[in-house]
Amino acid sequence: MILYIKRNIEVKGMDNELNEHHEREPYYEDEIDLYQLIQVLLKRKKLIVGVFLVVVIVTIAASYIMKPVYRVSAVVAPGQIYEQEPVRDALIWREKAIDTPENIERLISQNPFHYEILTQLTWDYQDPQNQFDIKTNVQERTNYIFVNIDSSEPERAKEYFSIFLDKVQNFYLHKAAVNATFY
To answer: How large is the angle between the packed helices 154-179 and 114-121, nearest 10 degrees?
Structure first.
């Protein structure tokens, strides 16, 4: 019988703790009181509008201060040449890429034609506007090379880029002509 009483005391003690816990912390429901939410928003409307206006003004000011940057882009792929190749008792023509996309990308990134292009355009070497950073990217599992120039003067960059691509093409045409064999 003593054990039975002890057991009852423990149960009563746990119930008392649970009741005290519920009395100390109010029970919150998972509901949103829209009226209170609207009251808080109306109370803080000056702060909300003020922060919004500051962000808008800073954004507008930054857009006028910053120089616009334009991108001139092209997609380059290795050209194909035809070479005769002996197969058994005959010669057949096979299509072959003039160079690998990685080698073409390396050539474009190094830009060995820069001073030649500036001379052709009669532009000053020292002028910072004439320093173009050419960015390249070989698309995975393809032979395509994406080439970009970012500039604040799009017409100047376009003119430079057009001549640059002509120089790359002429470089590979000359390379193909030198390596060509005539039958």
So the answer is: 120
